[in-house]
Amino acid sequence: MDWFSFLVGNVLSYVAIVVFFVGVPLQIYRWMRAPVVYPLTDFPAPKTAEGAFIKVLLDTFLFRPILLKIYDATVYTGKWTDLWLGGWIFHVSLALIIIGHIVGIGTLGHQFTILGVSPETSLHMSEFLGTVSGIFLSLSLIYLFLRRFFNPLVRVMSDGIDYLIVLLILGISCMGNFMRFSSTYGVEYDVAQRWIIGLFTLHPVALPDNPIFTWHLFLVEILLIYFPFSKLMHSCGIFFARWMITNYDPKKVMVFDWRSKVCEWKGGK
Amino acid sequence: MNFDRNVEKGRFPQRWWEDERLKTVQTMDKGEKHLVPFLAPKIYPLEPLDKPFDETELEQRFVSAFARVLAQHRQLKVYMESCVKCGACVNACHTYQGTGELRNIPVMRADLLRRYYKKYFTTQGAILGPIVGAERVTLEGLKEMYYYFYQCSQCRRCSYYCPMGIDTAEITRYGREILIQCGFVSQFHWSVLTSMWKTGNHMVITKPGLMDTVEFLEEELKEETGVDIKIPVDDWDAELLYNPSSADFFAYPDTMMGVAKVMHAAGIRWTISSDIIETGNFGLFLHENTMRMLNKRLIDQTFKMKNCAEVVLGECAHGWRTWKMMTKTVNGEWVDKRFHYVHLVHKLIELIDNGIIKVDPSRYEGMRVTLHDSCNNARAGGLIEEPRYVLSKILPEGSFIEMTPNREMNWCCGGGTGILWDDPESINLRVKLSRNKAEQYKAVNPDIAVVICSIGKAHNTFIVHDGYKDELDHVKIKGLVDLVGDAIVDFPFPKNKYAKS
């Protein structure tokens, strides 16, 4: 076991977990400490909190604000229809991959036996899904990177770090894909599971002797450590921001229901 | 711009002073749990600075003001950290599309503040510096920030485009509030704020001036209708308090006369209070404490009234937003239990629907009427279908035409947040800012454009009679109540007001 593998497998992994799982709630707590002084509703707004909740979920998970604007975006500039597809595919495949890592490593790829298929089929399905979403992840990231670079307006508004984050995730996903396809550098589920169990039971085991895997893990740890301090916090901020402009709390505003008031006032005050 | 001239001479418009009246506003509100914990103690501008602050002091002032605003407003913190720079807002902003300046893209504009946020309030900015776009406060940077933050009309259109739901209007609002602490404020906005503190309206109208104007308007009404229509001032036995925009007395007297006609025809005993003849509230745009002060001032008037059960707010869009969305949280939850606070449009619906005033739609036969949804009415105040309902009652079939896009996606006219500077350079800028609106007008080619907003009336008048007068000079800008007042069957129709030029 060389020093780098030790650093990544047994030191940085703890640092990353602590920073991520403490840092993100702390950032959210920092936001929560400040009050929202008055409602910021964008009208027309759902009348009830349930309606607002559903709208926030739809807006968040379908990227509806950009999806609905595709038409008039095309009218005005003719070249802005590109964002929704790239962004949405990226986020969906990323979510699938994160879920796949947790479930796949947790059940050794047998997660689909719950649907009644045999363990081998489940393993194949798991590998197939992982491969497909991995490819989509890399492709969409390349696409987003090129868009950021070649679209003059987006390029102007980007800082160095915006490229670096895309490259970081691209590096992670490319190494993951490489391990899928390569027979020499592939990592089996049980090896990864053993390492993770060791990590969480505080009896860390050595990483498998596989430089690609070590680098893959290293970049993930960098990402996790950087996460709470970066614009990646938009994954939490989006719910706050969307809720603020969607929620319409009748207790906080002067409500005037004009149709019912018209009837009520008919007989004078 | 006003600003450039001041900067060239090394002279900044203002300095704020500790003001006793601000203290009373604060102590008055202590103990309200929904209130902001505390607000700017020293803002009230009294004297111009001889020279700008040196950079050390500027930095201190900026950072302390920024920290205070951040501690009080969750939205600002979330907006500062959540932007991913996807570029979806490029299509949203009429300011960018009109001027073509990159800094007018909402994300770039917000970045003018975000770069300082990153520098002083985040770990990554302190460590990585320029890689993440963090910058130190400099005089040049603040000038740039001032220049572009005062071009934002806070129309909130970008919040409909942003996948995160970031509302750049909030960022520019608090950005301006921070800039005030550093000695930057536009002369126009500052004079309006000062005037609000002194007289309770934007135009420095004192009570004698008001009485004189009212008398003049009454004579006009007599001439027009042949009926003695009164505009009562400070009649504390009245049952309805109407709160006009101060511009209605000078720039758009038709609106005030329309209200008088409607109230006369409905037989309502109404009044206006000389202490506050302003629905609008410039505090919303750049200074939160002023916003609360003026809001409080109108609430105070209602205590003078003996039988008053209703306060009707005049045609002002951002005033309506302030009233509807902010009164209860900045001035206490009890306010709506004591009175009805309604918009004039709601009152008109009530009067027309119940047959209290009779209108004659045939008077507007052959006119093409369109409605400009003011940003703060439609997007921020939810007043979308109500004006259309009133128009459907007073206009004949087929007279009303919609602009595209309309309702909450309507283009801002470009005058939002009182961008009504009238020096020669700013006029060129205003023409650019209103390009999208002018194109909308050209597309529908109306005879009358209904604008339920005082700033909107001022700026739309500028668009049609000044900025784009070659194509649009025949368009008349009217308030909604102007049309209702002229449609009332009790009075003759003033044909000359609608004659095609």
Automatic annotation (TrEMBL), chain A:
Protein's recorded name: Nitrate reductase
Species name: Thermodesulfobium narugense
Main location per the UniProt record: membrane
Keywords: Cell membrane, Electron transport, Membrane, Oxidoreductase, Transmembrane, Transmembrane helix, Transport
Superkingdom assignment: Bacteria
UniProt-listed Pfam families: Nitrate_red_gam
GO molecular function, one term: electron transfer activity
Cellular component annotations (GO), alphabetically ordered: plasma membrane
Entry-linked InterPro entries: Heme-iron_electron_transfer (IPR051936), NarG-like_domain (IPR023234), NarG-like_sf (IPR036197)
Annotated TM spans: 12-32, 83-108, 128-149, 161-179, 212-229
Subcellular localization: Cell membrane
